[in-house]
Amino acid sequence: MADDARQSLPDLDTPGPNRAEGLSETFDFFELLRRLEQRNGLFGHSGRPDREPARLGQHVRLAFSARDLVVFREARDAAPARVTVANFGLLGPEGPMPLHLTRWVLDRLSQRWFAGAEAQLT
């Protein structure tokens, strides 16, 4: 396939060890997941959580987001890559949970209730 400028896009079916180098928040959410799967295997098929291509998390907020990805961190040492998204999740204006629960979570994040779970107030 080609992009809007008729430039050929990289073939994601061809395996390559360096396919996911240079990944960042500028990628589309699904494009980033495809590249992570191409490098580390499919999501949900690895058998164990520590062998997944990346950990997915939600950016909790009360406003609509202008982009899909908020933060992408590459895998370091034993920690897998981490993808924080704004478009999917249980909380916020796009989520199925009521907004008062999002306010409750934001309040608890500001009080650092979830600090042991590496949660961040954003």
What's the short story on this structure?
The chain has about 120 residues and is an alpha+beta fold. Helices cover about 20% and strands about 10% of the residues. The mean pLDDT is about 80.
Written overview of the protein:
With 122 residues, the chain is an alpha+beta fold. The chain has a domain at 29-87. It has helices at residues 29-40, 99-110; strands at 54-58, 69-73, 81-85. It has a three-stranded mixed β-sheet, with no helix packed on it. A hairpin with a 7-residue loop joins β2 (69-73) and β3. The longest helix is centred in the N-terminal third of the chain and has 12 residues, at 29-40. It starts with 28 loop residues before the first helix and ends in a 12-residue tail after the last helix. The model has no long low-confidence stretch (mean pLDDT 79).
Quickly list its features.
alpha+beta; 3 strands; 122 residues; 3-stranded mixed sheet
Total helices: the number is 2
The percentage helix is 10-25%
Tell me the structural class: alpha+beta
Basic shape = globular
Radius of gyration: 17 Å
Stretches with pLDDT under 50, minimum 5 residues: none
Number of strands: 3
Major sheet strand order: 1-3-2
| Biggest β-sheet description | 3 strands, mixed
- Terminal Cα separation, in Å? 36 Å
Helices and strands, in N-to-C order?
HEEEH
Strand content: 5-15%
Rounded mean pLDDT is 79
